[in-house]
Amino acid sequence: MANEEDDPIIQEIDVFLARSLLEKLYLFQYPIRPASMTYDDVTHLSAKIKPKQQKVELEMAIDTLNPNYCRSKGEQIALNVDGTCTDETSTYSSKLMDKQTFCSSQAASNVSRYAAAVYKKGELHLTPLHGILQLRPSFTYLDKADAKHREREAANEGGDSSQDEAEDDVKQITVRFSRPETEQARQRRVQSYEFLQKRQAEEHWVHLHYYGLKDSRSEHERQYLFSQGHGLAENTELIKSPSEYLMMLMPPSVEEENDKPMAPSNVLSMAQLRTLPLADQIKILMKNVKVMPFANLLGLLGSGTDPTAVLRCVQQVALLVQGNWVVKSDVLYPKDTSSPHSGVPAEVLCRGRDFVMWKFTQDRWVVRKEVAAVTKLCPEDVKDFLEHMSVARINKGWEFMLPYDEDFVKKHPDIVQRQQMLWMGIQAKLEKVYNLLKEHLTPKKQEAQSARPLLVSGEQRVNMAKAKVKQNYGQLEKEFQKQKAEMQSHDASAKTDVPNIRIKEEPVSVEEPMDTSAHEGLNNGLVNGLHPAQGSTEPLNGHLPGGCIDRVAQELKAFVSSTFKKQFVLTLSELKRLFNLHLASLPPGHTLFSGISDKMLQDMVLDTGCKQILVPFPPQTAASPDELKVYALWEAGDTYDQHRQVLLEIFSKNYRVRRNVIQNQLSQECGEDLNKQEVDRVLK
C-alpha cells in the first residue's frame, strides 16, 4: 500500500455474471496429444456422459496417414483385439488402430471457485464451472485382446482332448438359505467398494452429439457465455464490497472429506473424538471398550475434564459392576436391531446380557451353562455377552476381567448406593421374566482369590467395629481426663456430683465377641435396598435427627402423591419398585438416601389420602406378601371420585368381577346411567 502511487490504475473493467450455462458448463483437460492426433472438428467420432457421476467418454480419431504413425503396430493391435474376422462387433473395422478412447476423472472436488471468463468490448463475463474433468486414455481394448487370447487357448485345449463322450458325473447339490440381513450388515454392504462400483455401472450412458468449433450451433451456444442483461437486478451478487467480492471469487480453502484418507466406519481417532461433546465421547469409548475403571476413563478423556461431569454422563450409558463401569445393554443392542447369530430381537438380547451383568454383581465367577439355561439364548449370543466383560478360565468358568475397584467405591459412596438401587430394580424385572429360583439369587462361595463380596458378613462387621473402637479408645481417654481435671479445678462452693462420678473403665478384649444376634436376620443391614456405609452417622428405618424429619417427610409425601395421581392403584411391591427407581434418579446426597423403611412408606401412603383395599385373593395364589397389599387413592378431586370408591368397594369383596356387574352397581350407587366410554375410563 505504501507504493500505491507507483502502481496507478490504468483501466477499470466491468464484471458481469452470466447464468445461462449455470450447472451445464464443464472444462475438459486433454492430455498432451501425440503428433498423429489432432483435436479439431473431425477427430471427435462419438461422446457420452453419466451426469450423476460427471463421467465422460470421448472417442477420437487417429490420423493413420501421418508419417509419425506406426502402421505395423496399429495392425498388430487391431489383430490382437478383433482377430482375423471382422463384423459389427469389431472394435477396429479397418483392421487398423484408427481411434482412441478417453475417459474422464474429476480434477477437483470443489469447483465453486472456478469460472470461465470471456472478455469483450471492455467487459468481463464470468460463468461458474460445474465440473473440471481430466481426460486420460482408456485401454479397455487390451482387456478385450486378453479375452480373445484366452478363448483361443481354451479352443485349442478342447480340440486336443479325446473325441469320446463320457457321461457327466452326478454331483450332489447342497441348497443353503441365506439369513435375514441385519441393519449393520446392510450398512457394511452399501459402503463396500463392490457395491459402489455396481451402482456406478448401473447408471446409463447419455450419448452426446459433437459440434465443431466453427459450427453454427457452437456459435449460438457460445453467446450464452455473455450476460444476457446488464441491469443491476440480474447482477446483485456483484454489488458487494471489494473484500466480499474477492471472498466470493476465492473462498477460503476447506479440506474436503473426500480428500481425507478413508477409515473404517467403526474407527475414530482421538483427535476426532475430542471434538465431540463429552456425553458422546463417553458413549463411544464405553461402546468400544465395554468395561473400564473410572480412572482409565478420565485418562482417555484428557486433562482438564471435570470428574463430576464425567460421573454424570457415564451413568447414562454404563452400570457399575464390582467398582468398574460396564456399558449398558441397550447401547450395544439398540432398538429395532437383532442378533447376527440367531436373529433374536434386541429386547431379548438386552435382558440376557443384563442377567449376565447382574450375576457378576453377585460373584466373580459365572458359569456359561447356567446363563444359557436361564436366558434360553443360543450359545453364540451367550458367549458374546461373557466375552464383553469376562475371561474364560479352564475348569472354573468365566471370571470378571477387572479386579474390584475399591478406591472408586470408597471415594464415591453415593454413586455406589445409587447404582445398587438400579440393580435392585433390574433384579426385580429379571425375577419376573426368568422366574429365578433361590439358587440363582444366592451368590456361590468361591476360593480365596475371589474379590471382596458386595455384602459384608456379620463377623467382618464385628472385626471392623473392634478395630475402630481400639483406634478411638486412646483419644476418648485423653478427652475424659481433660474434662475431669477441669471439673476438679472449680470453686468448692460450686461442688457438684460430677467429680464423684466413677466411670467404669473396661479394657477392650480382642477375644470378646460383639452381640450381633439382633441384626443377623436383617440381611447385613439391608434396609429397603440400602447398604449403610461403614461408620456412617446417617440413621436407618426412619429415625432421623429433628431437623431432617420434616424434609424427608415432605420429599416422601411429594413422591407418594405424584405416584398415586398417575397410577391410582398400586401394590406395595410395585410402589417399592417405583420408589427405588425414583431414588436412582436423584442426585447424590439427597435427603431420601438417609433410609426409608417399609413401615414409613406405608404410613405415608395412608397419610396422603390413600386406603388399603383388602382384596380377597384366592388362597392358592403365588403372589408375595407385598404383592397382596393393595393401596388405592380414595379421593383425587375429580368427577370420578364416587365411581372410583364404588369400584374399590366391589373389589374388596371379590378379586374377579364381571363387567356388567360393575356397570349395574355403578348405576345403582351413583344414580345415573354410565355409557361404555365412562365405564372404561373408571376401570382404566
Automatic annotation (TrEMBL):
One of its GO terms (cellular component) is RNA polymerase III complex. Residues 146-155 have a biased composition (Basic and acidic residues). It holds the Pfam family RPC5_C. Residues 444-684 form the DNA-directed RNA polymerase III subunit RPC5 C-terminal domain. It comes from the Eukaryota. InterPro entries: RNA_pol_III_Rpc5, RPC5_C. GO terms for biological process: tRNA transcription by RNA polymerase III. Residues 146-169 are annotated as: Disordered. PANTHER family: DNA-DIRECTED RNA POLYMERASE III SUBUNIT RPC5, DNA-DIRECTED RNA POLYMERASES III 80 KDA POLYPEPTIDE RNA POLYMERASE III SUBUNIT 5. This is RPC5 polymerase. The gene is Polr3e.
